[in-house]
């Protein structure tokens, strides 16, 4: 199968599952994505899909772990570092040992080394999966912080122990002393490599900032390849690539203050790119699990065993999952990880930390990293281990999804959707009033005000028929104004005809369907090319043609400059609550037409200045309302973010006014 086609299908499936997630509230997003993967498994080219573990770890896990580290609050991590390592190293190692022996007792037919490999696979937790399950619940901050920090480092514990177990199975030898030294080398070696290389990448970005070449085309690709390069380099030294990218992400987080000197455009592009990419990668993980699950079941049922063995494997998965919850609960209850929690909340928080040990990306990747072939033969019990791991992943997602809503209240906010709408309207009206008070050029002022008003109606869709009716009245008004200008001797009949022809052409375009518009544009370009060919045959000087065109355009611009203010005034007079979206759309139409004719540098400067002042007044309004305690800090932060996004969109695209 073409890799491009495969990735395209995964992207479509991820987008579709994200859309379903907005409608299906009773299931976590990860479960929806697994179901989507199961649906994909019925596509012929997706049958018997086998995941390449090396590609999976490099292409998906490495960037996800880097971005997790980059978004970690380094101050809180330092404050809870001892607890984090207690959970990520102490709890992880103890869990692997206990679950390994239990797994061997439940599956005595498999070698003990593979039982420990299974335990190492199902031990690491996934903070992203936790967020997927708890995003609509009010989870205590202490519990969520502990889970997130634990997941940053316990992945490496699981991977190192998994590698040791596989090595013992391959060689038949196990040395506790060498294993401890190897564990320390891989664990702390990965942290050191990630710290050094991450620091070098940060210095490179700061150098680009100092030399004023930090545009998105340079910074974003560098940050994009950073986790892949660091992971590969750490693996070359036989250290943990996962911990290396986590350490590099933490270095990026510590230097966030210095990196804020990067241009606003670069920061916005980087942030948006990271969010989209990580969302896709997380979706890929669970969709791939769903795609792979039927293949594993097929392989198990075709190994000469009865289908009933699947039931026993599911039972083993359930038992191991329950035991891991008990171990986690006892670990925090016995204060082996001394988390600062109020006595009244200890039992609840301890239970939440236990049950939210949700498994996902690393568990899946390690399960599929078991070799398919060993010494020329099929690797024994590979499908059993993958099936049990998949069972644990699904259980760890489903159980909290059922239990937590019964224990925790729904997440509440200090504001409602009505509050957002109300204060956004007031904020924009406040800015519009200040734009009016600036007493600048009326046309440019109206253009800025119309753009600001478009923020109010961004969620409204203009009705097609109502829009055309108002447009037709505007066209009739234009004809009336043109005739008055001809009668007063302000323009010639030729100019009137030329302008009416332009209006008729635009009106015709607006009423066309997509296919009609496409055919008309194709005919237009064909005629344009034929005229150009005729001019070349007749050897017409192109400068003469350009001069005539510019003269005609200037004349048309003068006419349009007289008409536009009266059209805008007419639209303002007829604006009401029922036609707000339609009026704003038509204003945008006339404003864009006006800009095409008015290629005025001074006008561009006026608009830019008005925009800057308008956005600054919106910021002032938010600060004023916050000072009066009319809005909460959370609502103020949301409004700040919206204004910042609007400012970036409009100011970075000021070329449309040229």
Topology:
Blueprint (H helix, E strand, L loop, with lengths): L2 H21 L5 H12 L12 H18 L3 H6 L1 H26 L5 H11 L4 H8 L6 H31 L4 H35 L5 H21 L4 H14 L1 H4 L4 H38 L6 H26 L12 H10 L5 H8 L4 E2 L2 E2 L3 H26 L9 H21 L4 H15 L7 H24 L5 H18 L3 H25 L3 H32 L6 H18 L3 H27 L5 H20 L6
Antiparallel strand pairs: 1-2
Provide a concise account of the structure shown.
The chain is mainly alpha-helical and about 650 residues long.
Can you tell me about this structure?
The chain has 658 residues and is mainly α. Helix content is 78%, strand content 1%. The protein has 26 helices and two strands. It has helices spanning 3-23, 29-40, 53-70, 74-79, 81-106, 112-122, 127-134, 141-171, 176-210, 216-236, 241-254, 256-259, 264-301, 308-333, 346-355, 361-368, 382-407, 417-437, 442-456, 464-487, 493-510, 514-538, 542-573, 580-597, 601-627, 633-652; strands spanning 373-374, 377-378. It has a two-stranded antiparallel ribbon. Helix 5 crosses helix 6, helix 20 packs antiparallel against helix 21 (493-510) and helix 20 (464-487) crosses helix 24 (580-597). It is elongated, with a radius of gyration of 32 Å. The chain starts with a helix and ends in a 6-residue tail after the last helix. Residues 512-517, 540-547 and 652-658 have low confidence and may be disordered.
